[in-house]
Amino acid sequence: MMDLSKGFNPIHQGGALTMKFKQSDGQNQRIERISTSHLVVGIDIAKETHVAQATNFRGIVLSKRHLTFSNTIEGFEKLERWIDGIRQKHRLKGLIIGMEPTGHYGYNLANWLADKGNSVVMVNPATTKRNKENRDNSPSKSDPKDALVIADVISRGYYYEYSRQAIVFQRLRTIMSDREYWVTNSVRFQNRIIRWIDIRFPEYFSVFKDWTCKRSLATLKEFPSPQDLESLSVPEVITGWRKHMKRAGGSTGMQKAAELIAHAKSSIGETTALNEAKQDLQWLLEEFERVVEILERIEKDIQVLLSEIPMADHLRSIGLGTICIAAILSGAGDLRQYAHGRQLLRRAGLNLAESTSGKRKGQIVLSKRGDATLRKYLYLATLQLCGNHPVFRQLHENNVQVKQMKKQQSVFKLLGKLARIIIGIVQRGETFSPEKVAPICIQAA
C-alpha cells in the first residue's frame, strides 16, 4: 500500500504521467509522449470477446489483420504474444495500449496489463464516436474499425491515464459505490411506504411530520390502518408502542395517541384488501429497517477508512462532512495527483462548455463529461458550506447582493473556489485557514 504520509512526486506516480493542469499543455504533453518508436494498440472492449488493432505513431496499421481474443487469461496472453510479435517485427521499443471505459467489461484486462508494467490509457467513447468516419468517410461501425479508431485518437493525444489507485482509495471507492446502491434502495422503500400511507391513512402526516421517527415506526407496525386505531383508548395505544420503544408514554405520547385516534375515526383512507395491504407494509418496513442498518454499518466502515487517509483531515478542516469527504476521495482518488483545482472540476465534468460561431454566442453550460457522483457531492458540499460556513456564506452573500449574481451562478462560482482550496491545502499539506480568505471577506463586507 502506498504510504500516504510521504511526499508526492508531481511528475510521476504509479507509472502514470501527471498532466499539466492547462488543457492545451496537457494535450501537447500527451502527443509528445508518443514517439517514433511507439506501438499504439487500440482495443474494442466487449463482454466476452475483445478486438485489437495496432498502429505506429502516425496511424499506419502494422498488423496484417486485427486480433480477436477472449476475456480470459488465455485471451490476455494471446494479446501479449501478438503485441510482442509486432514490436519485434517493426523494432518498436515503446508501447501504449488504449481502450474505452465500457462499463466493467474491460476492468480486468486493464488491471492485468497495468500490473505487467504496460502503459494503459482510456479513450472517451464520445471521442471514438466522433472520429469513426475519419478513415473511410463512412458511418459504418464494427469492432475492428472501433479498435482502429481508438488507436488513431490515442496517437493524437485524445486519451487520459489509467492508473490504479492505492488500495485504501480502491476500498473507499468500492464501499461508496455500495452506499449509493443502498441509498437508492432506501429512497425506493421510503417512497413505497409514503404511497401506502397516502392511500390507507392520508391523515397520518398531520400527527407525524417525520414518519421515520421511533413512535411513528411503532405505530405503523402495531396500528397501520385507521381501523386498528378508531376503537382503542389512549392507554391501549401507548401499551402497543411499548413493544417497540422504551419511552412510549408521557405528555407527548398521550397527545400523539389522542390525535391518532381522532384522525382515525374520520379517516377517508381506502379499506379494500386491507389485510393484504397491511402485510405489504410490514414487508416494506422490515426491508427499510434492514437497509438503514446496512447504511449505518457502511458509515462506520467509511470512518475507519478515512482515518487511514491523512488528507481526509485537511478536507474536514474546511467543514465538509464524512460522506462528502469520502465521496470526493472515492471519485477523485489521491488528490495529490492534481496540480490545480481545474483538473478536479474536469474530472467531475464541472468544466464549462461554450458553443460560439461568428456573431452567434451560445449559452455557457457545464460539460458534464466526468464522474457524476463526484459532481453531485461537490455541488452538495458547496451548498452546505454556503449555508453553514461563515466564510463561504459571506462570499455567497457578496456575490448575490453586491455583484448581482443569481444564487445558482454564485454557488457554481464558489464550487470552483472550493476545488482550488481542496487541491491547494492537500498539495501543501495544510489545514484550511479562513485568514487566507479573510481579505476577500473584508472586501465583501
Please count the beta strands (DSSP E, at least 2 residues each): 12
Report mean pLDDT, rounded to a whole number.
Answer: 88
N- to C-terminal distance: 47 Å
Along the chain, the helix and strand elements come as: EEHEEEHEHEHHEHHHHHHHHHEEEEHHHH
Strand order of the largest sheet: 5-4-3-6-7-8
Low-pLDDT windows of residues: 1-17
User: Helical segment tally?
Assistant: 18
The share of residues in extended strands comes to 5-15%
Radius of gyration: 29 Å
- Largest sheet, described in full? 6 strands, mixed
Key words describing this protein structure:
alpha+beta; six-stranded mixed β-sheet; 445 residues; two-stranded antiparallel ribbon
Task: Please characterize this protein's 3D structure.
- The protein has 18 helices and 12 strands.
- The chain has about 450 residues and is an alpha+beta fold.
- The strands form 4 sheets. Strands 5-4-3-6-7-8 form a 6-stranded mixed sheet. The protein has a two-stranded antiparallel ribbon with strand order 1-2. Strands 9-12 form a two-stranded antiparallel ribbon.
- A hairpin with a 2-residue loop joins strand 10 and strand 11.
- Helix 11 crosses helix 13.
- The two termini are about 45 Å apart.
- The N terminus is likely disordered.
